[in-house]
Write a structure and sequence with these properties.
Elements lengths: L10 H7 L1 H14 L6 H14 L3 E5 L2 H11 L7 E4 L6 H8 L3 E4 L11 H7 L4 E4 L11 H11 L2 E5 L7 E3 L8 E3 L6 E5 L13 E5 L2 H10 L4 E3 L2 E2 L10 H32 L5 E2 L14 E5 L4 H10 L29 H9 E4 L7 H15 L1
Parallel strand pairs: 2-3, 2-4, 4-5, 5-8
Antiparallel strand pairs: 1-9, 6-7, 8-9, 10-11, 12-13, 13-14
Helix pairs in contact: 2-9, 3-9, 4-5, 4-8, 9-12
């Protein structure tokens, strides 16, 4: 039996490499005892804005809150339609429903797994007010086409970049050749600092970002009960603040994010080389306009062998995950949307084929060789 402990995400080994930095940052917060809205929050806010090349970054409590506050700030009304993908984590449509808005789903591209602009166009109607592209698994959706649609139909774009913070997108037209960070191209970008993310806290956390000064001011108030100044409430807001301890930890990890993403890309290249000529196995497609930072490394396993492969890997002590086993359009909680099996054939096909392998910053060559050999032993 293989002796190394292989994990989907190895946060323990990652921490050990930066232990002194993180421990010192935590101790500084404890010494100052400003646990809410302490100095580290503002410093992280400024440093993340610099990293993104974005004018306004507003930290908040988690990625779900980020999406909700973004929609609240756009003054949408009950019944307004928001177009997004059925192949994503539930938070993306959960907040739409919670605000009394209507999720309208558009199928995804079979190669990149991101929302398909051709399908978006089919779903735009008089009540459409926004598009929420999810930059899934670490690369950007087709933002050229999405932004063109948004301008044509006067729609907001809320980028869900929880899985792609640090990815770069280069427009094919307009400011051709200029790189933009994921989440900075639309009206508002949203992210999560859930511990397993490429930039992960030691608990929950999130942020919204925008280049619009008025929206930035409004978002900053809305995450703090709608206050612009203490005890004066300009908006109906929420209590969603990034606490100082998490901000201090994120400041340390932000310094390493570029190297973390490079490590993931290196592991992905190893997987690609190992699987490149394997019949019945499709390695992740790259959007040529976007870098891919591999929040997940997700294969398509053809010929009905996905579940068998996953069981085989489990027997070999290799973890794997199915992101996602069921499309959002057929989830019980969202039956009232009126969708049914067969409505989104690409999503449904992916739900039966995708399998994500271990992907994190601490994968070493011995682990990668063992993981890939286990996959190939089953399929060959």
């Amino acid at each position: 039996m293989y002796e190394q402990d292989i994990r989907m995400v190895d946060l323990s080994r990652q921490y050990l490499k930066i232990k002194a930095e993180v421990d010192a940052a935590i101790q500084e917060v404890i010494d100052e005892s400003a646990f809410i809205k302490g100095a580290a929050v503002k410093l992280f806010q400024a440093e993340l804005a610099g990293f993104l090349g974005c004018n306004h970054v507003i930290p908040c409590g988690n990625g779900t809150d980020a999406l909700q506050v973004a929609m609240m700030a756009l003054d949408l009304s009950p019944g307004d339609e928001i177009i997004t993908t059925p192949f994503t984590f539930i938070a993306t449509i959960e907040v739409i429903k919670l605000l009394g808005l209507k999720p309208v789903l558009a199928d995804v591209d079979p190669g990149t797994f991101n929302i398909d602009p051709v399908e978006i166009r089919k779903k735009i109607g008089p009540a459409t007010k926004a598009i929420v592209p999810v930059h899934l698994f670490g690369q950007c959706a087709d933002m050229d086409s999405i932004m063109d649609l948004a301008r044509e139909h006067h729609l907001h774009v809320i980028e869900d970049t929880a899985q792609a913070l640090g990815a770069d997108y280069t427009y094919r037209s307009g400011d051709t050749g200029v790189r933009h960070k994921a989440g900075t191209m639309g009206t508002i970008g949203c992210t999560s600092f859930f511990p397993s993310k490429n930039l992960g806290a030691f608990g929950d956390g999130g942020a919204v970002f925008t280049n619009n000064a008025m929206l930035g001011e409004k978002l900053a108030a809305m995450v703090n009960h709608g206050m612009k100044r203490r005890y004066y409430y300009d908006y109906v807001g929420v209590n969603s603040r990034l606490d100082t301890l998490q901000a201090a930890i994120l400041r340390v990890k932000l310094k390493h994010l570029h190297d973390y993403n490079l490590a993931r890309q290196k592991a992905a290249a190893f997987y690609d080389n190992a699987f490149g000529n394997t019949a019945g196995l499709v390695t992740p497609m790259r959007n040529p306009d976007s870098t891919h930072i591999f929040h997940q490394y997700t294969l398509k396993v053809e010929n009905g062998k996905r579940d068998g492969l996953q069981k085989h890997l489990k027997n070999k002590n290799v973890p794997s995950m199915v992101y996602y086993p069921v499309g959002l359009h057929v989830q019980k909680a969202y039956e009232d949307l009126g969708y049914a099996e067969g409505d989104f054939p690409v999503t449904e096909d992916l739900c039966n084929k995708v399998l994500s392998l271990p992907m994190h910053t601490e994968l070493d060559e011995e682990q990668l060789e063992y993981i890939t050999s286990c996959v190939l032993d089953y399929l060959n």
